[in-house]
Amino acid sequence: MTLLSKIGALGVLLAWGGLAAAQSADAPAKEEFADKVRVLAETELLSWVEDPIIIDAIREQNIRNEGMTNEEVDRLDKAWRAERKTSHKPMIWDLLDRLHSILLRDRREGSDGVVTEIIVMDRYGLNAAISDETSDFYQGDEAKYQETYLIGSDAVHVGDYEYDDSTQKWQTQVSLTVNDPENGEPIGAVTFGIDLSVLK
What we know:
The chain contains 7 helices and 6 strands, in the order ααααααββαββββ. It is of the alpha+beta class. It has a single domain (30-194), classed as Beta-Lactamase (2-Layer Sandwich), CATH 3.30.450.20.
């Protein structure tokens, strides 16, 4: 690489870093948006995943994954993350092409840009339905799962305003426990990415 090329590349990196820092500095505090996001999630968005197609998908995956070991979870998560780096993604494409994921994608596309992504998790924290490709397959080590499903049926978690690698947008995430409509028992969790610049 020539000196001019190095200088050019450095300029791009500095510009990007400056933009990211500026956006981060301008990010609203959580208390400024948490209540609005929480109300949106509880009064409108949660009903999206109460569709029988989504509920059945979670139930079926919970049965299928019962007894799964930590080693098996880790293997699946590593396989998912490895596929993200290639053009051939059978595991990711399989989930994206299922009816329940297509339904989520339709919901996201009909939100006028407010919702940037939807991730539905089973009781073990694994992706059960997704609107878009996620950074990883296992969400069980993150607040979106630990602060919802593990807390109880009425749990809601609102995240910080930050840059998300999956959507490549600045957003917050709001997550809720998903309950079985037949008995009210928690069966999984759901996360919605929310673009605050679009949310009115």
